Amino acid sequence: MLNYLILAITALLYSPIFSQLYRGRWEMIDYTHAYYILPISLWLIWRTKKGTATFFSVAVSPREKKSLSPFLLLPGLLLFIFGWRWDYLSISTFSLIPVLFGLTGLLYGGQAVKTLTFPILYLLFLVPPPMGILDSVTLPMRHMISVLTEIILKFFHYPISREGLLLSIGGHQLYMGEPCSGFRSLVTMLALGLLYVYLIKSSTGKKLILVAAIVPLALLGNLIRVITLCLVTFYFGAAVAQGFFHYFSGAVIFVIMLLGLLGLESIIPSGTISVKTSYISRARKVSPFTNNLLIILLAATALLSFAVPKPIDVSPDILSRLEIPYRIGPWQGKDIAQELNLNDD
User: Fold this and answer.
1) Nearest to 62 by CA among 295, 287, 279
2) DSSP result, 64-95
3) What is the reported pTM?
């Protein structure tokens, strides 16, 4: 029963984090695929070979005493405390990964850790990246897409020109904004593709080939989407391209990746498929000392995070340097006070 209590305390500990994420953090950075990651991960745990009831009734065998679980749990809890007290939501969310690995190893053993490695690592897709990192990644991707679009359409003799991220075709202009970079669709397709590869029964080599094909297929789909938008703009006008078709064309990326994966799966020889039945054998119970220590650690983490006042009061109207880039190529930003020469001195 103490195992259930430990898991319940862990869920309560992270409930404020997920409350912030579900209330708008993901939507603010257009990371909407993350809403489905936690339910999918829980479903993957539920569908383990023995089922949820058997899984949570097992314990650690004596041979699994020497484990790296404590070395994952303690840093994870420290990351949670640091992220929560200094308002780094990405860090506090990421801390869930080592905490789950540590708790799983201590409560259920190494076989459980091995069985649940993918469902736990799959939670990485719900960690919100800082906006500054997003900008540093999406800007080169937007530039690459605009350059390739210009080259391809010029090859087919379309009147297209480019100035930075601005494409001009047939008297119309299209700006390569953040959605055109394909980064967020790439992450979404990567999450769906990895889930698909994990669920199919096939050889390891075939799965590795399919995983390696996810990113190129997603980038190809985004390139085709941007080229199609340019052609629709050229033939039918900007109003048609920027209306319903602009949002509908996002499905093109998904269709291309899905068809690509299905096509590769059908033409790649499977070879010999060795399906190893994974299960968690029953063993002796976890010692009361370990259970009590875990409860104390989780309770101390909650107290240090929520009960003790935060050392600084960060206004929600102020974005930290982690959230906005201060340098993009040759350009370097300045603080507003420095820009307007409003310093007190």
Assistant:
1) 287
2) G-S-SHHHHHHHHHHHHHHHHHTT-HHHHHHT
3) 0.75
